Amino acid sequence: MTDRTPPHSTDSTDHTDRDAARELDRNSNRGANDDRDRNHNCGREREREQTRPTERATDGGIGTDPETDTGAETEADASAPTRTETSNGQQAAEPVEHVPIADPSLSDTVLERVEAVLEDGMLADGPEVRAFEGEFSGFCRTQHAVATSNGTTALHAALESFGVEEGDAVVTSPFSFVASANAIRLAGATPVFADIDPETYTLDPADVERVLDDRDDIVGLLPVHLYGLPAQMPELCAIANEHDLFVLEDACQAHGATVDGKRVGGLGDAACFSFYPTKNMTTGEGGVVTTDRDDIADGVRRYVNHGRDPGEGGYDHTELGHNYRLTSLAAAIGRVQLQRLLEFNDARQANAAYYDEHLEAVPLETPTVPDGYGHVYHQYTVRTESPDERDALAESLAARNVDSSVYYDPPIHRQPAYESVSTAAASFPDAEHAAETVLSLPVHPSLSTQERRTVVEAVHDHYNL
Ligand SMILES: Cc1ncc(COP(=O)(O)O)c(C=O)c1O
Fold it and tell me: Among 173, 178, 274, which residue has the most ligand 1 atoms within 8 Å of its CB, making it the best to mutate?
């Protein structure tokens, strides 16, 4: 791995950022307190509108202080009147009839910014995208951010820029969304899996070493910050340094997560994020590569634009590439979402703290957060004692209209699309066991206090507590 000096401000406290983000948010949202909470996934908004007597209202970004929300319920909470506030400050109607697993929060500011782009007429690549890139690299404290059309294309373009090619192998986790390994295959290389740490569900550094001992074609590591918890980056970067490998973080689920106060995105040689609607922040579809390395940033800029030389401005295509560009409309959404990211993460953390506390007496393993790690709870994932128990719990929750989801079963090496991949034949017992026993509960920032209480009650009911 390449040694890097932090390029940006020495002020690395989350707190300062949070204040700045809130200030930005206050300014950009001034006067806009009519948040339209939409769910762009699976038409769920319509379903919710039908089941709820009153609409949600008010933008949670303004005037709420998530730091004062410890996630703990009070007596007053328990006897709350017919409306209750979300941990994101929004109003929700009671009774809760359905608790969705994801619920993206978009404000009127998004509409204004998108409208401005529409009026401007520069809909594809343009200044809005450059501005978003600048703001995202500032957030990650990296030298560069290059926007892409989604997280998968970010991973693919980054791997191409590292020069990965046929005959090369890259180590990744078998317990991830399939895109992590697909990107390696799209670059022409072979994904090599190492098992996960059963406590954190992220790549086990000891198993990575075992794999490295067996092969001499490995050129890089692609650790995944699963569910919003960073992989064990200090250990993995030390291994990479020793073996002269690049480290590409798959941070698609971990916007704002930290290790020892340092944000993901700047922990390896490069990192990739997704802005899919369920993620900690969204642009609809979208992605970004962050890096401190000029060569990687330049390579990604060229690759996402058909290998076009960015310096010349003409039609000099110096290498093969793709059209993996982000649109200005998506960038406009992303700029507003980025301003609210810390607020969203605070709300996710408050919801997670609430679950930690209220699921203590239940025979479930709640998420492990190692010392020094900042988890941003893209998912709040519990673990049951057996596969049957997982399925039974999911059924009980569904019967109470509480969504839950399994991320991911089967693991990547057991996917039909991986039958032809030689390295997928191996066994990774911890990943396989996790795939059979994990279950994610709704933890998104739009969750109301009543909704998260409903989730806990549904789990308690299942265990007859
Ligand atoms: C871990 C991980 N990697 C990669 C991706 C791919 O991102 P996208 O869906 O934006 O292509 C995702 C998205 O779900 C993901 O969760």
Answer: 274
Atom of ligand 1 nearest to the CA of 226: 1
**CA dist., res. 460 & res. 465, Å (int):** 5
CA distance 94 to 103: 17
In angstroms, rounded to a whole number, what is the distance separating the alpha carbons of residues 430 and 247?
Answer: 23
**Pick from 94, 30, 93, 36: nearest CA to 63:** 30
Question: CB atoms < 10 A from the CB of 319, how many?
Answer: 12
Q: How far is the CA of 294 from the centre of ligand 1 (A)?
A: 24
- Is residue 29 within 6 Å of ligand 1 at its C-beta? no
Per-residue pLDDT tens over the stretch 443-465: 999 999 999 999 999 999 999 99
**Domains, the chain:** 44-102+342-462 (3.90.1150.10), 109-336 (3.40.640.10)
In ligand 1, the atom with minimum distance to the C-alpha of 183 is 4
Q: Average pLDDT of the chain?
A: 84
CA separation for the pair 202, 232 (Å, rounded): 7
CB 244 within 8 A of CB 259: no
H or E segment and range at residue 170: strand 169-172
DSSP annotation of 420: T
Q: Is 374 in the pocket of ligand 1 (CB under 6 A)?
A: no
Task: Read off the pTM.
Answer: 0.83
Ligand 1 nearest atom to the CA of residue 150, by list position: 10
Residue 179 Cβ contacting ligand 1 at under 6 Å: yes
